[in-house]
Amino acid sequence: MKHYPVTMSLLLGGTFLSMAQEKPNIIIIYTDDMGYADLSCYGGDFVKTENIDRLAEEGIRFTQYYTAAPISSPSRVGITTGMYPTRWGIRSFLQTREGNRKNIQNDFLSDRAPSLARTLRDNGYRTAHFGKWHMGGGRDVDNAPSIYNYGFDEYVSTWESPDPDKMITASNWIWSDQDSIKRWNRTAYYVDKTLEFLKKNRDKPCYINLWPDDVHTPFVPNPQQLSTDKNDWEKVESFRFVLKEYDKQIGRLMQGLKSLGVDNNTLIIFSSDNGPNPSYGVERTKGLRGKKGTLYEGGIRMPFIVRWPSVITPNQVNENSVLASVDIFPTLCSITKSRISTDFPQDGEDRSDVILKNKNSERNKPVFWEFSRRKQTATGKENGPMPQVAVRWQEWKLLVFIDGSEVELYNMEDDPLEQNNVADQYKNTAERLKFEALRWFSHSFREFANINK
User: Fold this and answer.
1) In this model, does residue 15 exceed pLDDT 70?
2) pTM of structure
3) CATH 3.30.1120 residue spans of the chain
4) Is 342 left (phi over 0), alpha (psi -120 to 50) or beta?
5) CA atoms 12, 17, 18, 23: torsion sign
6) Cα dihedral value 322, 429, 87, 274, nearest 10
7) N or C: which end of the chain has fewer CB within 10 A?
8) 23-362: CATH number
9) Residues 73-110 as b or e (16 or more Cβ within 10 Å = b)
10) What digits encode the pLDDT tens for the residues 322-374?
11) What one-character DSSP code corresponds to residue 386?
């Protein structure tokens, strides 16, 4: 099947005044496995990502934004719930029942958990999810809740979900050459679904998860542009073609918003779920240590761009404020005046002043991480087990094993590449942060155990 253009009826089917809406449309573009420096606006030189760069030019770009986990499923749980994924027993990528048991985790995110989509829908939003889900379903997990249960009015999802779209899942795997929508056309497919949803729900504000599975491997370029076989699908040349096509589709999305007349009052958040793999050394992280599956910066520090033309001043860069993906839930609820349920505690903070007004401010709470699925390689020079718990507080970041051993402390203002462990020089700081990190992990793990009773 060929490229999916925006139809003329979509482009010409009636422009409407988005400013009549009191609340903005919201689109969260959650890229899959995008490295901190994949984008040229973050210093990458793989390709010129001119359309995504334009998002940054027309809004605000952050350099100290963190995802909730260095791997897919728990990262997606963090942004969905506003809570650390360990609390809900999602600690690694969701897979087979046996694999989940080995990782001491649930088979899916409970539909009792808070959901940003559900909260916004309760405040008058129409809601949709287009793209990768990976919070339950797939492989031999056949009892995951429907995506509707999390507050979505409409969805299209991939193989790793309870009800995958048959157009993109001809086989029981991530991708098949028998799929009706070919691998290189999937992001275009999701973009079309996004624009169609906005068009048919013009009378209400919309919240949309646009969660493509680019730029996750395999990197399968359109064969008309670059002839490859499966041995080429992790090579840098294939990655360049996939990244370029992804950037093109983001450009189509932006043009579609303008054609629908909703561009000015649409708040777009662009980011990634976790760090890259392969990382091509440190090319995809701009020298940041680590990659997908590690708690070093390359695994958890992500590009983060926010654009809302009617509100956010363009051409801004914030290099000082620390943001976390768990902040998105309370921040968007603050912006839209949506009531957050008090049934469960929120781990994130309302950072609307930072995002909308570029006010530098310190967090009230530290940012925590936990990941301990298996041994990983942080860089080409390091092998062996990686630290399992981490905390970021002000200028300090500490990593430690769950038994309290192998403490690493870095000053992120002086040493963002995490090259100089200063735990011995700042023993009091190291001890205090180690205590906080391990107490947080222990408390979160007990909550997970209680939820499963």
Assistant:
1) no
2) 0.92
3) 387-451
4) alpha
5) negative
6) 40
7) C
8) 3.40.720.10
9) bbbbbbbbbbbbbbbbbbbbbbbeeebbeebebbbbbb
10) 999 999 999 999 999 999 999 999 999 999 999 999 999 899 999 999 997 54
11) P
